[in-house]
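User: I'm curious whether this sequence folds into something compact or stays loose and floppy. Could you predict its structure so I can see for myself?
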Amino acid sequence: MRHNLISKLQTRDVRYLQNLTVLDLSQNKIADITRIPSACKNLRELDLISNQLSSLPPDFYEYLKNLEQLQLSGNPVSELSEQIGELSKLRVLGISFTNIKQLPRTIVKLARLSRILVDNTPLIVALEIFLNEGIGAEAGLRQARHRGD
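Assistant: Here's the prediction. I'll summarize afterward.
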């Protein structure tokens, strides 16, 4: 469903997606993904690169417990909820080219996180702090990339 100029997902669009493990909605015009989390509980990879998301729905983290890869790069999203710490299986987090200024403290709970992409973000908190506090403790954070503007 990549690069299809999709702007809105209706209930009828996502109700058949319950068994999906990979969903690529990148390069569309989606501003609201409210219906995705509850419909796609088995997702392991979610690619939302280059859409128009300014926030994630409140129940996003509650339903997507199996998520291993989350790509939000290229969206005007400005924050990640403290609930991101509940995504215990997350290995890859892409937030490059977003408006995120701070990473939530609960990110240190993501023991499997091995790659975080933060290129061209106004990130305030240095990644070294999170490295020192145990981020990626189980797998070892192998790549934390930040290139300023």
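Summary: The two ends are 30 Å apart (CA to CA). The chain is about 10% helix and 10% strand.
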